[in-house]
Amino acid sequence: MARADRRGIRLRVLMEPRHGSTYDDILALALTTERTGFDAFFRSDHLMGVDPEDRTYRPTDCWTTLGGLARDTRRVRLGALMGAATFRAPGLLATIVASVDEMSGGRVELGLGTGWYAREHAAFGLPFPETAERFDRLEEQLAIITGLWRTPSGDEEGFSFVGKHFRIEDNRTPPRPAQTPHPPILVGGTGPRRTPAIAAKYATEFNSALGGDLRERFDVFSRACEAIGRDPAEPRRSSVLPVACGSTPTEVERRAAVIGSEFMRTNAAIGSPELVVERIEELSALGVDTVYLHIYDIHDLDHVELIGAEVLPHVTALEIAEP
Questions:
Q1: Domain holding 49: CATH number?
Q2: Rounded to an integer, what distance in angstroms lies between the CA atom of residue 251 and that of residue 69?
Q3: How many domains does the chain have?
Q4: The dihedral sign for the CA sequence 122, 123, 127, 128
Q5: What is the pLDDT of residues 22-62, one digit of tens each?
Q6: Which of 45, 95, 123, 172 could bridge to 158 as Cys pair (CB 3.0-4.6 Å)?
Q7: pLDDT digits over 219-256, tens only?
């Protein structure tokens, strides 16, 4: 039996458009997400589409648009899945997220990963170190961000940090998020060693990414929590689910055609609302308590409306398997 405080799955909308977007596009989808009862609206943190040759792609900055949504929405939680630690310096990112959290009345969540898209970094002049260094930088960033957020304003000693890649000197005016002690932090990925170790130390929620053996990935994360004396049942566990849901075969086919790759289609829920519910039930049996429904056609607001009406009511009462 699941713990009482973990009853019910949180169903969230994740926007990662194939061809980019404008703020008006993003706002329309976020407002539909809010109106139809979903828990949160998340967006990807990318400046380029998966196809680097797609010249129609329109980049937008993740946290700039989340700041706009903080003022233009009222209930839905907001976040990035996943932000790239290579994009922003940690002190600046801590301040940006705290600002958006205050603007939203405490509805922001920070997802942060190593970054992975080398071509994107090259196209926008952003450094892209080797994998080991990116993990080092991610861990230092999380130490700095949480350290700044937890340092009381006016603290006599301030916050300082000396690492291999970042240095903070005597910050006595740290950024102040609205949430206490700070916004939830999401860390995740498929890495078998450093990802679960970093998540065990810093994450409010561990995201299992897409594909592979989720049960094994969660078991490794639980062992990483136990290794540092953390209760494995404390952090949430989430997964991404690409979705193409329709009331008719024609609708399903049209929405499935937008999903970008064979890998995504293999791991997607493609079919009727009943099929999508079944896929979410399978995830809940593995211990997933938060599902990010990956939406590709951000102009197809009827898609979100359908899932909100025909899927959401059936999954919010599901019980989650114990970690």
A1: 3.20.20.30
A2: 29
A3: 1
A4: negative
A5: 999 999 999 999 999 999 999 999 888 877 788 888 889 99
A6: 172
A7: 999 999 999 999 999 999 999 999 999 999 999 999 99
